[in-house]
Design brief:
The protein is mostly beta strands. It folds into 5 domains: 227 residues, 3 Solenoid (Pectate Lyase C-like), CATH 2.160.20; 127 residues, no CATH class; 175 residues, 3 Solenoid (Pectate Lyase C-like); 137 residues, no CATH class; 281 residues, TolB, C-terminal domain (Neuraminidase), CATH 2.120.10.30. It contains 6 helices and 81 strands. The strands form 12 sheets. It has a 24-stranded mixed β-sheet that branches. It has a 21-stranded mixed β-sheet that branches.
Length: 1002
């Protein structure tokens, strides 16, 4: 699109090309909602004056209290000349008869090349490091003091504001939008013109966006907390290269149209993504609707439900192999498409497959109706303050609020705290609207009489049965001590909607003076309230951009006893004690981009999703995450009870994360992987089956549970022997010269030994926090401990375990007869690093970033007392205090075990972020180079035997011949974690799982 400027009086007006002329839009907020705490921009707004300072001053004023705020931008054209920073939890709303526009004039300084943002949503000093570890490189001019978004960047948003990019701004992007939960862009048109993209680095949820022209509409990589990104009711037109270019953003599309561009969605070369689209339309897309990369990666998961192609001859093109999926004529419908690792049934191992159901169309169908209902116009909003509701955090507003609901259909809540002491009951057509759920709460006072004791659940807000009620933009807080409370009891019908609602409690919560009891108070019982959101008794509808992290509730999102369809988009349910999502006697629901998380304290015993007696359910682009700090094993993400016709698409079960930090050695973005993700993705309790694959594209659970299924059990290879069990979680194994196995049960700080003659023994149990170990030439143990800020390494003689010798790091000696110890599994793919090349606009591939990481020198080492082993001093990162409660991360602390090889020899290790196993050349200072893929599976560990056979632990044990062909699979009773070869004859494969030790003769 080309945009020229015409001086008309004192206003710069655009002269539009035919594509841009299509872009007539209406303002969503025609008048200013009455909110005394909101800040209004005082700019000139004539398109000529530079309004950069006015915009920034208003945003900074809203952010001054530390909890964010609301900024109103009146109708006008606001020219900017530098990047405007939108601070955490600040929300911008355009108001007035026309949408306000933020304009970048032709040839603006700093925007001609690279990646340069007009608006940049920022983060905060999450880890209190005092210095921005990785300031966004996209600001004009560059500002090293700006913090990028983190996993705690909440509530940031922009709505009803358009963007225009003039000629000569090839590096311009309208919005850089890295955020975590409850951030959004809505009702925005991007006139990108000469620019690079409308959005760079997308996050959380977008609605009702239109992208015109530009090289791309959206360019993005993984979001700041690694959650999914969902785009709803939006369209792209006329991009020069592709509508969307991305990787690892877990892109979820609902009712999206892509027109007049060479490529619809391009996944970056050498990268994967979990892409799911519902009601997606490709029109006049000349090269390919979707370009898929890394097609042999389990992280590549592509799915569509009801896509339409018009003049789009190639629906999918596979970049690496050149294979294509052609469209069925000039007009066609793709009822179902799936590519990736497909599981034929529960209890099976997956294989790559393409499933396509496609048919030609006689005519182009009408586009789907919007998935998200429009809110009533501002003119219909009755301000609750005008109706006697105080919202002052002191007055009991129950009676006044109920009276307002009974007499007005649409109610608006200005920023404030609205205290109630009884259930607020909605009418069938009630609409409740607020603009900032972090600052606008309905809440219960602690120890409210009607919510105490034993009894049925009692709601804070309760909908009527049936109807089309809406709740939007509110925070709901049930207080610290109200055991019968449920925040939202929803019985509304299929046309109802809950959008942008935050259940307070947990992250992002600011306690009120009316309900001050926090999580540290012994009266506030975790798992002591009813579910936060409970949809029941025929309830249904649309639930979008929901965040439900209240640890006091029994679950975050509970659905029961309904066949009314439900559509859930971008749900974040976190930090509960038993289950995050529960379905009980439910049919006809879909969950697109649901995400769960369990913390160390709040969630260590929780599963992600529990499904009971339910049918016809879809989970797509599903994330089941346990934090990197997790210290306890958990068996399954999803548990099924008497349930069938459950469709799982694009499943991601993980426990890695990245974070930005600074220390005396410098600043940067770093990646960590936990040893404690869910052991299995799915466990069907009724059928006695489980899914060991944690990354897959497709699984259909059969509709009915049969008697034959009840008799099934987890398969185990006949040659697998159990040697010992009853452990909390074991790892860190190594063998001595005689084949004796040593390993660690970290929770109990024990080092065990095992031989055929002795059986299981306890070698040492001193409280020294052992994590990983190796055996030196003298038979002594070299032990890596998590104690101390930079970890600790010590040596002990198994015959005299009390004689501990602490080893200090010394400059790396470059081999000299010592074998180098390395982590057997590493997580490395450069996520969160914003590594786009500002000249080529390409990202380095995952394999390239893994190679770069492994080639990094470690200038210090820990040398065993006999000089036979060298453990490179991998950098240790800390969160928390220096004592035992602080968390330590490094590649060696995170690993399930250590492998060794002399410099100049080759070593086998796995990159879990690619799910691949590599063979590499060991150099000095712990470098590993010349990496070659030896198996397209990997994750926990790998080891070679003397004959060159390769054993890879990845759900089961996969055995590869020396030439790389898969020979067999060893099925184990539990998920294998570390593999070690030893025994009296060195022909025993020891298999360490969390709770038991197994062996196989090889």
């Amino acid at each position: 699109m080309t945009m020229k400027w015409l001086l008309s009086g004192a206003v710069l007006l655009p002269v539009l090309s035919p594509v841009a002329a299509f872009a007539k839009t209406n303002s969503v907020y025609l008048t200013r909602p009455d909110d005394p705490r909101a800040i209004t921009v005082k700019g000139v707004g004539d398109g000529r004056a530079d309004d950069s300072v006015a915009l920034q001053q208003a945003i900074d004023a809203a952010a001054a209290g530390g909890q964010g705020g609301v900024v109103f931008v009146p109708s006008g054209r606001y020219r900017i000349s530098r990047t405007i920073f939108v601070r955490s939890a600040v929300r911008l709303f355009g108001i007035g008869p026309t949408r306000p526009e933020i304009v970048l004039a032709d040839n603006s300084a700093g925007y001609a090349s690279g990646v340069a943002a007009m608006l940049s949503f920022t983060g905060e000093d999450q880890y209190r490091v005092g210095k921005a570890p990785v300031p966004p490189p996209t600001s004009v001019p560059f500002d090293p003091a700006i913090f990028d978004a983190t996993s705690s960047t909440f509530y940031s948003a922009l709505s009803n504001i358009d963007f225009w990019i003039g000629d000569g701004n090839a590096g311009a992007v309208a919005v850089r939008f890295r955020v975590a939960q409850h951030g959004y862009l809505r009702h925005v048109d991007f006139h990108i013109g000469s620019g690079l993209a409308g959005v760079y680095q997308a996050g959380n949820e977008f609605e009702d966006l239109r992208f015109f022209g530009g090289r791309y509409g959206i360019i993005s990589e993984k979001t700041s907390p690694a959650w999914q990104f969902t785009l709803i009711d939006s369209e792209f037109r006329g991009q020069r290269d592709a509508a969307i270019r991305e990787h690892e953003v877990d892109l979820t599309l609902v009712n999206v149209a892509i027109r007049d561009t060479p490529v619809g969605i391009e996944i970056d070369r050498g990268h994967s993504d979990s892409l799911w689209g519902k009601d997606v339309r490709f029109e006049n897309v000349t090269r390919a609707g979707v370009v898929v990369s890394a097609e042999n990666s389990v992280f590549t998961q592509i799915g569509f439900d009801n896509a339409v192609g018009v003049n789009t001859p190639t629906f999918v093109r596979f970049r690496d192999s050149g294979k294509t999926v052609a469209g069925a004529g000039p007009r066609y419908r793709v009822a179902d498409f799936s590519y990736g690792l497909k599981l034929p049934a529960l209890g099976t191992i997956g294989a790559y497959a393409t499933d396509v159901t496609m048919a030609p169309l006689a005519r182009v169908p009408v586009r789907a109706t919007p998935a998200i209902r429009a809110l009533p116009p501002v003119g219909d909003w009755a301000n609750v303050r005008d109706l006697g509701v105080k919202g002052d955090d002191t007055t009991d507003d129950t009676a006044a609020l109920q009276r307002a609901i009974d007499t007005h259909r649409v109610l608006y809540f200005p920023t404030g705290r609205y205290r109630v002491s009884d259930t607020v009951k909605l009418r069938a057509d009630t609409v409740l609207i607020a603009l900032h759920p972090g600052l606008t709460h309905l809440y219960l006072v602690d120890q409210t009489a009607g919510y105490a004791g034993v009894g049925p659940p009692k709601a804070l807000v309760e909908s009527a049965r049936g109807g089309n009620a809406i709740v939007s933009g509110l925070g709901l807080w049930t207080g610290g001590v109200n055991p019968r409370a449920t925040a939202l009891l929803w019985r509304a019908g299929a046309a109802s909607m809950v959008n942008d609602v935050k259940i307070q409690g947990g992250g992002g919560t600011a306690l009120t003076k009316g309900s001050p009891i926090g999580f540290g108070d012994p009266r506030a019982r975790f798992d002591g309230q009813s579910p936060s959101i409970w949809v029941t008794d025929g309830g249904g509808g649309t639930f979008a951009a929901i965040w439900s992290p209240n640890t006091l509730a029994s679950s975050g999102f509970h659905v029961s006893n309904t066949k009314t369809p439900g559509h859930v988009y971008q749900l974040s349910a976190e930090h509960h004690y038993r289950a995050e999502i529960v379905l009980d006697h439910v049919e006809n629901w879909e969950f697109l981009a649901p995400q769960t998380e369990q913390e160390v304290r709040d969630g260590v015993d929780a599963i992600s999703t529990e499904i009971r007696h339910s049918r016809n359910i879809l989970f797509a682009n599903y994330h089941a995450y346990r934090v990197t700090r997790s210290i306890k094993p958990m068996d399954a993400a999803v548990k099924l009870y008497d349930s069938g016709d459950i469709r799982f698409r694009n499943v991601h079960v993980n426990a890695e994360s990245g974070f930005a930090s600074c220390d005396a050695k410098g600043c940067g973005t770093y990646l960590r992987a936990s040893k404690y993700p869910f052991e299995t993705a799915i466990k069907d309790i009724t059928r006695r089956q489980e899914v060991r694959e944690r990354e897959f594209a497709r699984l259909d659970v059969p509709p009915a549970v049969t008697s034959a299924a009840l008799a099934s059990a987890i398969p185990v290879s006949t040659d697998v022997r159990k040697l010992a069990d009853g452990f909390y979680s074991i790892a860190g194994g190594a063998v001595d010269a005689h084949g004796k196995l040593y390993f660690i049960d970290r929770h109990f700080q024990r080092i065990h030994g095992w031989t055929k003659a002795e059986g299981l023994s306890i070698v040492a149990d001193a409280p020294l926090d052992p994590v990983n170990l190796a055996v030196d030439r003298s038979g002594h143990l070299l032990v890596l401990s998590s104690a101390g800020r930079d970890a600790t390494v010590y040596s002990l003689d198994p015959a005299k375990p009390a004689a501990v010798q602490v080893i200090a790091p010394t400059p790396a000696a470059g081999g000299k007869g010592a074998a180098t110890l390395l982590p057997v599994n590493v997580w490395a793919n450069g996520e969160f690093a914003d590594r786009i090349d500002p000249t080529t606009y390409q990202f380095p591939t995952m394999a390239d970033m893994f190679a770069t990481k492994m080639a990094e020198p470690k200038p210090e080492e820990y040398r065993s007392p006999d000089g036979s082993l060298s453990l490179p001093a991998f950098r240790v990162w800390n969160q928390g205090p220096d004592d035992h409660q602080g968390w330590r991360w490094s590649d060696t602390l995170d690993a399930y075990g250590l492998v060794s090889a002399a410099p100049g020899a080759r070593v086998v290790l796995t990159n879990a972020s690619e799910n691949r196993t590599y063979d590499g050349l060991v150099g000095d200072q712990g470098r590993v180079t010349d990496l070659k893929i030896v198996a397209d599976r990997g994750g926990e560990s790998a080891v070679r035997d003397a004959a060159g056979q390769l054993y890879v632990a990845n759900g089961q044990v996969f055995v590869y011949a020396a030439d790389g062909t898969l020979r067999r699979r060893i099925d184990t009773p539990e998920r294998p974690l570390q593999l070690v070869i030893g025994g009296d004859d060195n022909h025993t494969l020891f298999i360490l799982t969390h709770h038991a030790l197994y062996a196989v003769a090889i």
